[in-house]
């Protein structure tokens, strides 16, 4: 079966006169962009591919070898080097900026994939001296390299369907190390030809112009050329992942963005601004599509999107399996419910870890549509993860829970670990329902929150207030009383171990200080527990259950 570039290169040529990328060239205060056409990208890809043929051969490397590509994730050349290495038959393993902060992370992940060398951005020059690999600096000024001209590149190699195409990594760590996530050629073709065409719902006659979602070292942004290139769409680079309202407005007015692609926490920030800023509201409503992913929005935010006519779609994806479910832009009233993408052979199977019938408390009755499901990707599905990272012999379960809200429609219900065991008998507790309720009834008081208490006497709520200074004891007491008062109706439908009913159970911290995932900005429950272990131990010792 073909290399994933066998499909991409003809598409790049088909849309050669269109703009493929708009690169950020300004400052956060004065944003500006530079356009790169499809043809310019092809020319740069070819000359960089030609440049690397001899140096890599002289280093003893062979096509199909894994080569670490250590990039900042912020440069146009990052994308060029990725596709250029793939073009001459190598397997790029994307190494990101965060790895420089982890001891031995780079050699560790390369040893897992049998990586043979490292091509590195000069930014990491001080970090490569002690690495036991052949290390070669990248060329970031492409003007130093001649165009391909009359030279010929080797044929794109004929590869098996399950051969490695590109290797990425999880955004979190296991045992202090990121986990390699290999993507096969079959997976990459599925991502571009089946999954992403279902995400863009603006029509074939409109060029989608969408922002990047984080670093070019991570799968969502690194593969944009693959999945946007098939249909002639365009990527606009942002100055940073969590852009502010001013840059959001400039992306639309100056860069022509008509499709916003955001993690749910980022969209929530824009919604909060749009509630009092008519220009931001008009900008959101004027977009062809607003896609959010990474976590569920607060119910009040979803209701606001519907009420204000924002053409929003929810999308579920993982690094391992790509996009699997999406909502219908023409039926925003169904948010956050999604359907399986047509052509994706995934299944929703009854959850084995959190079945409705074994849930304690009133959590079961709070499920609007009934049963809980795991997302299962069969081994023969084109987007099934590489065999080395599957968690079942017959396929892979993503670890996320879904609630069936209507036949064929499913709402994201969080990670399996959103269901903790707590209380006297270590009964199940749905932390997400509690967090959602706090964010709904206290939307004017609380910016974010997380529930702790796994295998503890009771739950503890960490809150980041919108306005209260955590060092002002009197104000903190008033805030806790307000939270408890507003949350009280929730307690009436919950078993005792699920209830938040004492000021002792609330810990107020400064805004932005709860630990979050790097890319999505979701609060990390276990990390929050670890960071505040001492105060939690004091609280747990006083809780009566």
TrEMBL record:
<dbReference type="InterPro" id="IPR000873">
    <property type="entry name" value="AMP-dep_synth/lig_dom"/>
</dbReference>
<dbReference type="InterPro" id="IPR042099">
    <property type="entry name" value="ANL_N_sf"/>
</dbReference>
<dbReference type="GO" id="GO:0031956">
    <property type="term" value="F:medium-chain fatty acid-CoA ligase activity"/>
</dbReference>
<dbReference type="Pfam" id="PF23562">
    <property type="entry name" value="AMP-binding_C_3"/>
</dbReference>
<dbReference type="Pfam" id="PF00501">
    <property type="entry name" value="AMP-binding"/>
</dbReference>
<dbReference type="GO" id="GO:0006631">
    <property type="term" value="P:fatty acid metabolic process"/>
</dbReference>
<protein>
    <submittedName>
        <fullName>Acetyl-CoA synthetase-like protein</fullName>
    </submittedName>
</protein>
<comment type="similarity">
    <text>Belongs to the ATP-dependent AMP-binding enzyme family.</text>
</comment>
<feature type="domain" description="AMP-dependent synthetase/ligase">
    <location>
        <begin position="32"/>
        <end position="330"/>
    </location>
</feature>
């Amino acid at each position: 079966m073909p290399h994933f570039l066998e499909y991409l290169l003809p598409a790049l040529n088909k849309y050669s006169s269109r703009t493929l990328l708009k690169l950020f060239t300004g400052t956060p205060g004065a944003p500006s962009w530079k356009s790169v056409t499809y043809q310019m990208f092809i020319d740069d890809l070819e000359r960089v591919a030609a440049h690397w043929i001899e140096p890599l051969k002289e280093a003893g490397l062979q096509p199909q070898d894994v080569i670490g590509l250590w990039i900042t994730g912020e440069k146009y050349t990052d994308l060029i080097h990725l596709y250029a290495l793939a073009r001459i038959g190598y397997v790029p393993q994307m190494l990101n900026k965060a790895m420089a902060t982890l001891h031995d992370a780079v050699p560790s992940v390369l040893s897992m994939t049998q990586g043979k060398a490292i091509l590195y951005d000069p930014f990491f020059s001080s970090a490569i001296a002690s690495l036991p690999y052949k290390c070669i600096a990248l060329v970031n000024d492409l003007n130093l390299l001649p165009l391909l001209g009359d030279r010929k590149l080797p044929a794109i190699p004929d590869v098996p369907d399950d051969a490695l195409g590109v290797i990425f990594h999880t955004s979190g760590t296991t045992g202090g190390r990121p986990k390699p996530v290999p993507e096969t050629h079959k997976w990459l073709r599925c991502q571009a030809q089946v999954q992403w065409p279902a995400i863009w719902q603006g029509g074939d006659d409109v060029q989608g112009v969408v922002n990047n979602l984080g670093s070019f070292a991570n799968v969502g942004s690194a593969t944009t050329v693959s999945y946007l290139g098939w249909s002639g769409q365009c990527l606009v680079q942002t100055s940073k992942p969590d852009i502010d309202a001013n840059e959001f407005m400039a992306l639309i007015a100056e860069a022509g963005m008509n499709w916003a692609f955001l993690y749910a926490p980022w969209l929530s920030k824009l919604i909060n601004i749009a509630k009092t800023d008519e220009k931001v509201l008009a900008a959101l409503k004027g977009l062809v599509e607003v896609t959010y992913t990474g976590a569920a929005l607060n119910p009040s935010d979803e209701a606001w999107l519907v009420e204000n006519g924002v053409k929003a779609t929810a999308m579920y994806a993982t690094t391992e399996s790509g996009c699997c479910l999406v909502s219908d832009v023409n039926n925003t009233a169904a948010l956050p419910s999604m359907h399986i993408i047509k052509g994706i052979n995934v299944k929703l199977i009854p959850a084995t870890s959190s079945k409705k019938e074994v849930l304690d408390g009133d959590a079961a009755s709070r499920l609007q549509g009934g049963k809980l499901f795991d997302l299962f990707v069969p081994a023969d599905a084109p987007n099934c993860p590489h065999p080395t990272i599957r968690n079942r012999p017959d396929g892979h379960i993503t670890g996320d829970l879904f609630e069936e809200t209507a036949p064929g429609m499913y709402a994201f219900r969080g990670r399996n670990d959103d269901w903790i065991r707590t209380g006297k008998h270590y009964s199940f507790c749905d932390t997400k329902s509690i967090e959602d309720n706090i964010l709904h009834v206290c939307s004017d008081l609380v910016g974010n929150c997380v529930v702790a208490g796994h295998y503890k006497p009771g739950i503890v709520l960490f809150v980041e207030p919108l306005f209260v200074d955590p060092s002002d004891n009197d104000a903190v007491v008033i805030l806790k009383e307000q939270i408890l008062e507003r949350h009280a109706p929730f307690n009436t439908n919950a078993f005792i171990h699920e209830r938040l009913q004492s000021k002792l159970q609330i810990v107020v911290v400064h805004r932005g200080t709860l630990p979050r995932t790097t890319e999505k900005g979701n609060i990390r429950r276990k990390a929050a527990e670890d960071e505040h272990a001492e105060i939690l131990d004091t609280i747990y010792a006083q809780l009566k259950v």
